[in-house]
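Q: How do we represent a protein-ligand complex in a form that can be generated token by token?
A: Start from the inputs.
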Amino acid sequence: MTLVLGIETSCDETAASVTRDGREVLSNTVYSQIALHEVYGGVVPEIASRKHIDKIIYVIDAAIKDAGIDKSELDAVAVTYNPGLVGALLVGVSAAKALAYGLGKPLVPVNHIQGHIAANYIAHPELEPPFVCLVASGGHSHILHVKDYHDFEILGATTDDAAGEAFDKVARVLGLGYPGGPKLNKLAEGGDPQAIQFPRPHNGFDFSFSGLKTAVINYVHNAEQKGGEINKADIAASFQQAVVDVLVGNTVSAAKSVGCPAVALAGGVAANTALRSALKNAAEADSMRFYCPPMELCTDNGAMISCAGYLNYVAGMRADLSLNAEPQLKIV
Ligand code: KG4
Ligand code: ZN
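Then emit the structure tokens for the protein with KG4 bound:
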């Protein structure tokens, strides 16, 4: 039995979790900073870092207590060290180093994207590579061929904005506030996804959301200048449909191109109800298996880091006390 503590502070959630053998969640504590950043309309990195410092010890203690274990029973301390906000990452990395050193336990580095993918292993203990995974979140959007637990090939990616970033920006234009993704998702439920034909730019398995975002902004400004009423629910539903069409079309085509019979979804945007059902339907229509974590494991959490940390631990990956926070994206 292997108990791994996972620590996640890459953006605006202070999170920690203990898992057993990488697939069983014993605790999953998340302190969300959303309310704190809401007034600014987005994440303020300096505020995020300071709040992580305030909360990290309490969140780690709660995760260990909820798991019903003593910290001396941990086999390893895993932590997200890239990619993310550098000041935010540093808090988790520093806490993990101190704990690992103090307990005399191995320190295991985890890539945040690898963590998002690993949320699927928790939700579906039978899932094993190979599969194709669409990872769509606030900072990154990739279609990955997960050939093995540590062997990833990028099949497609955004050439500009991440999917979550586009959701957040369009939500802001519609006056929905932060975080925009879930609010836009809710509003879209009452709208007509065919009401407005927004562009669906993609090139091969790559895609782009910057032009789509601009098209929505122009549509809203033009309507406002003409003094007409805008139907926000129709705009939200039509924008969401454009994003979903591109992501689903490209993911299924990419999976077919590598002959992969299984498709998974991960990252904060995987909480989007329209994306979840569209990708499930499209994959299953092509006789592919479909996997998706429950909502609470899609957005940032400690359990996915603990699970990925377990995989890294059994693969022999270790960090020493020189481990540093790295803001830049690295997957393969
Ligand atoms: O993975 P995540 O929690 O943080 C990053 O690693 O970036 O993803 C956060 C992103 C935000 O952009 C948020 O608006 C988006 O995921 N998101 C959603 C939904 N829930 C969260 N986007 C669309 N629909 C949702 N229901
Ligand atoms: Zn994330």
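The chain has eleven helices and twelve strands. The pocket of zinc ion (ligand 2) is lined by residues 112, 116, 137, 267-268, 300 (CB under 6 Å).
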